[in-house]
């Protein structure tokens, strides 16, 4: 499959179980969950509950992703809430933004469908915006009176797949990361391509990729995962041992750089991210100097890990 984010893949797999729950409500396991957690509603409207199991919490987590692409396919409109449900393919979130007027009798989508003729435009026009009216008019209506059904918007056949769910999850994570303060810098493909083309051992390339992805077993990361009792640097006992502290700001690290013939002014400051550092290194240094920089960092970390043992 070629996935790179285990979190996104796990979320896509959980969404698949939520899809199965919606599509097979009469299955034995689905009826058990309904009886325990949502006896009087549906899976999409179910709440967490006070004594939720790990299985139920996992399904709710997957439901969050499922809601990003789940919408109603309009047939007779008898099962779709006109104002609440997502059923318009070309609108954001598939839902209307217009507020329901107090004097309207429109409740279901079927209330604005004229059997055998199409949409009831005179009834729709006064209660929604012109843009929403145009979007509704683009929805084709079948000739036969069939039940509405839920479909996955991001696939041609309307069936949820882990592959499409994974792509949605990774895109959402990218947008979320870009919106965080101090993390607006997004590394381009050229940055990674330049690193991989450096004439240094592959283990050093892989090491620096892990540095940029915050993938080293620093005290900060171990403490966050409850694998260490403290997040303080065990050498200086002064600051949190983040990747930046480990590589540049710890007194021992500064001593290493002081004795190195690589001069890099960016080490003195406090950067927003290691990725920005890496991009600055590759832009401001010649390739031989950058290669020496990466190699020095790598062997410094090896000495540090040996010292901790």
Write the topology of this structure:
Elements: H1 6-23, H2 28-37, H3 54-66, E1 70-73, E2 113-114, E3 118-119, H4 121-124, H5 130-137, E4 149-152, H6 162-178, H7 189-197, H8 202-212, H9 219-224, H10 243-249, H11 251-258, H12 274-284, H13 287-308
Antiparallel strand pairs: 1-4, 2-3
Protein model, in words:
By secondary structure, the protein is mainly α. 47% of the residues lie in helices and 4% in strands. It has a two-stranded antiparallel ribbon. Strands 2-3 form a two-stranded antiparallel sheet. This is Reverse transcriptase zinc-binding domain-containing protein. Residues 160-257 form the Reverse transcriptase zinc-binding domain. Pfam families: zf-RVT. InterPro entries: RVT-Znf.
